[in-house]
Amino acid sequence: PKFLDYVGIGADDVVIVTSVEHDHVDIYPTRAAYEAEFAELARRVPEGGLLVCDARDPALRAIVAEHARARVVFYALEGDDTGDVTPTWLGALCSPDGAAQPFDLYVGGMSCGRFAMQAPGAHNVRNAIAAMAACAEGFGVPVTTARGALATFEGVKRRQDLLGAPRGISVYDDFAHHPTAIRATTQALRRHVGAARIIAVVGSTGAVRACTDLPPAIKIGAQTIGSEQRPVPLAQVTRSEVLQFSAGGFRDFTRIAASDPTMWRDVFLANKDAVLEMLGRFNEDVATLTRAIR
User: Fold this and answer.
1) Is 91 helix (H, G, I), strand (E, B) or coil?
2) For residue 87, which of 55, 112, 168, 216 is within the disulfide window of CB 3.0 to 4.6 Å?
3) Do the strands 101-107 and 110-117 form a parallel or antiparallel pair, or are they unpaired?
């Protein structure tokens, strides 16, 4: 991986690791293969260097505990499960204030005051805290200087990048493609826009395709059917519970039914193998249910 080319150049390298979540599955088919590269990264950071790590990632905690030679500084947000690690840098999210995302910062248990940034969302606050920790502890930048810089930072392209607002509809471009990144981005937008309607258009690329190579209609169906809630006996499910459970998916399907049928024909035909596999599973479930009723 490219990040190995960036370490070992100096005796005081500073590295930020935000997570060790299995990704790029076309190159690293197993979690062990993926984590092995991060273990090598930890080993290559010199003893005089610095590793700034997200304390909520258990895989990352284990890797640096076993392989890091450099000093390790952890960061987190209030409420994170950080295992047996106490983060030195801790942020506490505050309610959005207009276009700004405020948060309180604590370093070593001491309050550093309230900070604000233009990019909304917990994931952006995490990144900001990691960057400030790296600058302060790796390069000696005062926290007060970092606060001023953060307030004027406009973000980067394709990260909640506002393209315009035709007819009053804000259109954002975001590069998020891993399911975790997509979740973080949509949660950030929800905090930012409140109860306003959000429509997400997700390209079938990278990890999204690896996780599920299904067209949008089938993805919605699978999400509706495959709830994380614990299954209950059918006899105990009331009509109101059925409606409550299926409302979101039902609305999505009705919008699909009202859209261009030619487009959906092309989508299904382009993904026919995945569609047929899902329909086969559905038919098996229906047959099992039929036998149970009889």
Assistant:
1) strand
2) 55
3) antiparallel
Q: Which structure tokens are listed for 210?
A: 């690896």
CB 76 within 8 A of CB 55: yes
Residue pair 87/75 in contact by the 8 Å Cβ criterion: yes
Q: Cα angle vertex 103, ends 98, 109, to 5°?
A: 170
Measured CA to CA, the distance from residue 66 to residue 72 in angstroms comes to: 12
Residue 185 to residue 165: CA distance in whole angstroms: 19
Cβ atoms < 10 Å from Cβ of 159:
19
Pick from 24, 21, 18, 19: nearest CA to 1: 24
Report the C-alpha gap between 90 and 93 in whole angstroms. Answer: 10
CB 15 within 8 A of CB 49: yes
Q: What angle do CA 111, 117, 123 make, to 5 degrees?
A: 85
φ, ψ dihedrals at 267, nearest 5°: -60, -45
pLDDT in tens, 44-73: 999 999 999 999 999 999 999 999 999 999
Q: Label residue 252 exposed, middle or buried (CB < 10 Å: 0-12, 13-18, 19+).
A: middle
Angle in degrees, CA 150, 94, 195, rounded to 5: 110
pTM of the predicted model, to two decimals?
0.59
CA 80 to each of CA 63, 85, 192: distance values in angstroms, whole numbers, following the listed order: 19, 11, 21
- Is residue 74 within 8 A of residue 53, CB to CB? The reply is yes
Type of residue found at 111 = S
